Amino acid sequence: IGPYHPGHLVIPESEMKEESKDLSGPIPGTLYTRFDPQRHTGFVMKNWLVSWSDGEKDTKGMPPARFFRTYRFVLERLLRTANVAMVVDEANPDSYIGFMCWSGGDVPTLHYVYVKHGYRGIGFMTGMLAELGVTGETDFKFTFMPVPRKKAEGLRSRFPKATHAPELLTTLVKESETEE
User: Fold this and answer.
1) CB 87 within 8 A of CB 124
2) Cα–chain center distance at 89
3) What pLDDT does 3 receive?
4) Contact at 8 Å (CB) between 32 and 9?
5) Which residue from 10, 169, 31 is spatially nearest to 103, judged by alpha carbons?
6) Phi, psi of 4 (to 5 degrees)
7) Which residue, 67, 77, 45, is CA-closest to 172?
8) Residue 26 half-sphere exposure toward CB, CA atoms < 13 A
9) Which H or E run includes 128?
10) How far, CA to CA in Å, does 164 sit from each of 51, 106, 169, 175?
11) In the chain, N or C: fewer CB atoms in 10 Å?
């Protein structure tokens, strides 16, 4: 994974959807910034946990108390050990647009990427992945499986070299159970 580049989030034209080509380049009013645990943890935890509870097939039917205890442990561990970056409103840095969590290595591993509903479809996810050097031609792993199926198929069509690798999450879930 390339170096971390704070500043305006840039969406490469080559990665833009055809209907959004006029938005290539820096996105005005947005900043790509480092994760600050003091300021950003609440936003990241809330949105990640809600997204997971709504979507991951492995969490369906899990009692809510167990789900939140287990996945809170997983997220706290990832936030301490992985890389996290935020996209914020430049005029109001306390107004969050999205975040990305990943680990480095020969092949980058994306743990999660989240963009608020009102900002989806513009290219924020693509811009965050581009910051890591991930394009449609890049090998990378992802530990989550987006649902519904349409989202998963969209991810696979835009990033055909991506590989689902849930092993890290499975390991962290097992560790959380031994902590109980």
Assistant:
1) yes
2) 17
3) 41
4) yes
5) 169
6) -80, 130
7) 77
8) 11
9) helix 124-131
10) 18, 16, 11, 21
11) C
3-state secondary structure of 159: coil
Total residue count of the chain as it appears in this document: 180
The amino acid present at 31, given as its one-letter code, is: L
- Containing 81, the helix (H) or strand (E) segment is helix 64-81
The token pair at 165 is: 């690798």
The b/e string for 114-125 (b: 16+ C-beta within 10 A; e otherwise) is bbeeebeebbbb
Lowest mean pLDDT among 21-35, 89-103, 166-180: 21-35
How far does Cα 62 stand from its chain's mean position?
23
pTM for the full predicted model: 0.78
Please give the Cα distance from 88 to 176 (Å, whole number). 31
Q: What angle do CA 13, 142, 66 make, to 5 degrees?
A: 135
User: Where residue 43 falls among pLDDT bands split at 50, 70, 90?
Assistant: very high
pLDDT single digits (tens) 8-25: 666 555 554 554 444 445
Q: Are 166 and 52 in contact (CB under 8 A)?
A: no
SS3 70: helix
pLDDT in the model for residue 72: 87
Q: How far apart are CA 170 and CA 53, in angstroms?
A: 16
